[in-house]
Amino acid sequence: MTKIFKTAAVILLMGAVPLFAQEIGGEVANGAEMGSEVASVSEKTEENGAVESEGGKKNLAEAGGETSDDIPEEEVEFTSFPKELSLAGDFSAYITLPQRAVLDKDSYSQKDFEILSATPDESGLNIEIKAVPFSLGISTFTALTFTGQDGTRYVSKAVNAEVKAVDTGIKEKKLLDIRSPYRPFNYWNVFWLLAIAAIIIGGYMAYRRRRPYDRAALLKAFEEDKRPLDIIALDRLDHLLAGNLWNDGEYKIFYVNMIDILRDYLTLRFNIQAHNYTSRDLLRILKKMPEFKGDLRQLGDLQRSADYVKFAKVEPTQAQRDADINNMRSIIIDTRPPRLESESKEEKKEVEL
């Protein structure tokens, strides 16, 4: 039985081997056929691409277009180009073209130069090229390309120029002594300088405040005029306006005289040393005086305006001057001394005349 089974197995194997070989051979043949088909398809694709490319060029030519090989070019030369240049110093070169054209963007890239601008004149044919050299010695200004209105390209010739160093005017270099060791800044010196300056300014201000004002001389000058203080002050103000200080542009002197008139009046009217006080101190003192009936706001505006002109050199307008004059008149009229009955009658007579 065992021999029978072995014999049957051998027979089956002998029959299966040819079938298996036939299947493998068929698959190999099929693969070869597929490869030949792929090769034929790729060849057809390349042929079609070549045909389409030739057809595209033919269609572009029929449509009136131009390829990159068909664009005409002309060579042009600079009409003016400096032979010697200074390092990092801008210069101008000129070129003339047959028609209006624009410098291509790629031409701005230079190895030894930087192009700043390309400006045509009114005709559009003469172009000024401004550039800056950044390399010493013989430097090459490479060719520039311009595109004309009809598409023509104009290419300039490359130019060689000698770039020299800037002449500083120093012929000989002198050796300098070695610096002394660096020492940090001493802030205490600044502190002491400021302290001394503050003491000097404070002492001067204290001296001015305590210095007795020559009220007797001022009063003597006013006693020669028998009119009331307010009338004298207003009359002096009118004379100041009638003078030529304002018309001559002497604004500072005009305001100095105007404030002197007001302070003379306040000195005699309220028995204070008005000339020895600052604007702020004068306001503070008058504010504490019950007999002062004037408008402190008007007085403050007047003194502030005068300080701007005297110390800050501000040029006042005529409108500002008129406003300050009106404030001063109001202060004098509001604070004028009481009249005697005889003085009031005399003033009425003068007004009627």
Report on the structure:
The protein has helices at residues 2-62, 187-210, 215-223, 229-242, 251-270, 279-287, 296-311, 318-334, 341-352; strands at residues 73-76, 78-80, 84-86, 91-96, 101-103, 113-120, 126-133, 137-141, 145-148, 153-156, 159-164. The model is unreliable at 16-65, 209-213 and 349-353 (pLDDT under 50). Helices cover 52% and strands 15% of the residues. By secondary structure, it is an alpha+beta fold. A 4-stranded mixed β-sheet has the order 1-10-9-5, with no helix packed on it. The chain has a 4-stranded antiparallel β-sheet with strand order 2-4-7-6, with no helix packed on it. A 3-stranded mixed β-sheet has the order 3-11-8, with no helix packed on it. α4 (229-242) runs antiparallel to α5.
> What portion of residues belong to β-strands?
15-25%
Helix content: 40-55%
Low-confidence stretches: 16-65, 209-213, 349-353
The ordered string of helix (H) and strand (E) elements is: HEEEEEEEEEEEHHHHHHHH
Distance between the termini: 175 Å
> Structural class of the helices, strands and pairings?
alpha+beta
Number of helices: 9
